[in-house]
Design goal:
It is globular, with a radius of gyration of 32 Å. By secondary structure, the chain is of the alpha+beta class. The longest helix is centred in the N-terminal third of the chain and has 21 residues. The chain is 41% helix and 16% strand.
Length: 710
Amino acid sequence: MSAEATNPGAPIRRRGRPRIDLRRLGRVALLGPVSRDRLPDAIGHVAEAHRAHHPDADLAVLHRAYVLAESSHRGQMRKSGEPYITHPLAVTLILAELGAETTTLTASLLHDTVEDTEVTLDQVRDQFGEEVCYLVDGVTKLEKVDYGAAAEPETFRKMLVATGDDVRVMSIKLADRLHNMRTLGVMRPEKQARIAKVTRDVLIPLAERLGVQALKTELEDLVFAILHPEEYVHTRAVISAATAAADPLTAIAGNVAAVLRDADITAEVVVRPRHFVSVHRVRIKRGELRGSDFGRLLVLVGEDADCYAVLGELHTCFTPVISEFKDFIASPKFNLYQSLHTAVVGPDGEVAEVLIRTHRMHRVAEAGVIALGNPYTADGTAPNAEPADGERADPTRPGWLSRLLQWQQSAPDPDTFWTTLRADLAQDREITVFRTDGGTLGLPAGATCVDAAYAQYGDAAHSCIGARVNGRLATLSTVLGDGDTVQPLLAEDAASGPSPDWLDHARTPTARIAITGWLDAHPQDPETAAATPPDGRRTGPQPARYSRPARPGSAGPAGRTVSAVVERPDTTVRLAGCCTPVPPDDVTGFTVRGGAVTVHRLECPVVARMEAVGRVPVVVSWGDAAECRVTLVAESFGRPRLFADLTEAIAGADAAVISATVEPPSEQRVRHTYTLQLPDAAGLPALMRAMRDVPGVYDVSRAQQPAAAF
C-alpha cells in the first residue's frame, strides 16, 4: 500500500528490511514486468508486516503453517514458472499489510493445500484448529469433475454461504484473486478476459461491499488493463504526462497544512494519487482533466471532533465547493466507510478534493472488514467459545450479505444463481427503510414497495395489495427513499398472486425469484392473454398492480366454484377476474389449460375473442351457493376522504375488500375499482346503491376489464 494508505498510528518498523508497498507493486504490475525472483527470507516479510499491526502476535503458528504449505506444494510450479509456494506467500503478505489477524494469515498460507495437495481438512483441523479449518474449507473450490460447468457458480455459492458465517473467508478470496490478477499475463488472452469479467462482475463489487478499498482499486486497474486495453494505454499516457508536470496539489497541501498548524490542529496532510480507473472516470465525466484531477488531499486526525474542526478551518480559509460536501461520518456508507468529503479552491484557482478522517477511519476505509480482526471476539484477537447450538452471530455481517444468503437458497439452479448474483452486486448503493413495527429493512437503492413486501413477508407477499409509504397509500411500483416508512398491505385472500407486471418493479433477487417461481407454478391462462391489448400495453392511468383472480379448487362432483356449475364431474370451475360474474348474470365458460373451466359474463369482451379464435363455450348455470366475488367501478368527483367514505359504505353492506385501485385524477374526476367478496349475491344491488349514495359518486358499475389493486 502507499504511504497514505497505511496506518499512521502503527508501531515503527525495525530498520534493515524495506517496507513492501502493495500499491507500488500493483502499479509495477501494470506498468511493467514483475520480478519473478523468490521472495527474500520466505516468510520474513509476512512476519514483519504482521508485527507492524499486531506487535504481540504469536508468529510460531505462521511458521508452522508455512512449513506445511511449502512441503505440500513442493515440486508444484505456477504457470508463470515460479514455485507454487510464492502464491500463498504473496496472498498472505497482502493480507498482512492490510492488518489481518493471525488466524486469517494462517488460513491464507494453507488456502490451496486441501484443493491442490494431499493435505486434508482433518489434518488442518488437527494442527491448526477449527477456525483455520473453516476458513480453508470456505475458499476451497469445488471440483469440475463433480460439478461440470456449474463448478464456478456453485463454488461462489459455497464461498458466500461460508462468508455469511465468517467474513474472513471472502477476505482471503479477494487477496487470492488480486495476486492471480497480478500474474494473469501468462494466460491465454481469452482466459484472461474470462477471469477479468468475473472479477469485474463479482469480486470487485464484493470488495466494495466489504469496504476493502485497497484491494478493490487495484483489482479495478488490473481488469481495466485487460478488458479495455486502448483506454488503459491512453489513461497511462495521461498520468505519465501529468507526473512529469508540476503538481498543483502539492502546493495546496502545503497551504492546508499551514492553516491547520495555525489553528493548533494536529493533522497529517498528504496527496493521495488517483488510481487508473478513477482518472479514467474523471476524464469521461469532465472531458478535459485539470492538474488537480490526478489526486486528492487526505487529512488524517486523531478524533472525530477534529474532522469537523478541519472542515471548519478549510471552509473558512478557502473557498469551498459546497456541492461537493458529503458527511459519511454522521451517515456511514453501508460498507463501514466513514469520512468527510469536500472540495476547496486553491490560490491559483485549482479545485482540490479533500478527504478528512481519523486514523482509525482511514484504516477501515482501506482494509474494511479485514481491519476489524476476528469478528467473533471483543478485541479482534482470540476466538470466544462456540455457542452450544453451533451458530455464530457475526457482528460484521452487513444487511446486503444477509439478503444475499436469503435469496440464494431460493435460486433453483446454478445459472439463475450466477445471473442473479451479478445483477444483485451491480446495485452499488443501499438504503434503509423503516417498518411500522419499529424494525428496519436494508434494500438496494431503487427498491420499490414490491421489494419491501417480499423482504418483510417472504412468500406471503404474493397476496400484497398495496402499501403505505410515510402514512400515505402508494402503488406497489413506488420507489422508496432512504428513511421512508413502509407498510405493505396484504389481502385476506391468500390465494391471490402476483402479476407479471411486478417483475418490472422488483429490484431485489428475493422478490424476483419469488415472483418468477409463483408465475411458473401458475401459468397465465389463454383467456387472460386474450384480454390483453394486441400491443401488450395497458392504456389509460396505470393502477398500482394487476391482481390475478383467486383460484378456488373443485367443490364437488358437479364441478362447482362459488355457485357456478358445469355438468362435468371432477372439473375445477372458477370465476373470471376480468368480469367477476355473480348470480343472476348470464354466463358462459371456456376450458383452459389444465382442464379447468373459467366462467365469464356473456357481455365480457373475452367471450367474443375466445369465440373468434374457435374456442367452444361450455354451458354454465348457477347453483345454490350464495357467496360471490365481484369487481365494481365507482366514478366520482375528487374530494378529501372519498376513499374512506366508499370503503365505509362497502363495509356497511357486509362486503369484504379483496383489492382496490384509485387511478390518478383526470379533470377532477377519480375512478375507484374494488374487488369485493359478498356473503350473498342478492345483496349486490343494495351494495351498489350504497356506494352511489356516497357524496361525489355519480356512477357505480360492474367492471369489464381485469381488476387492478393497490
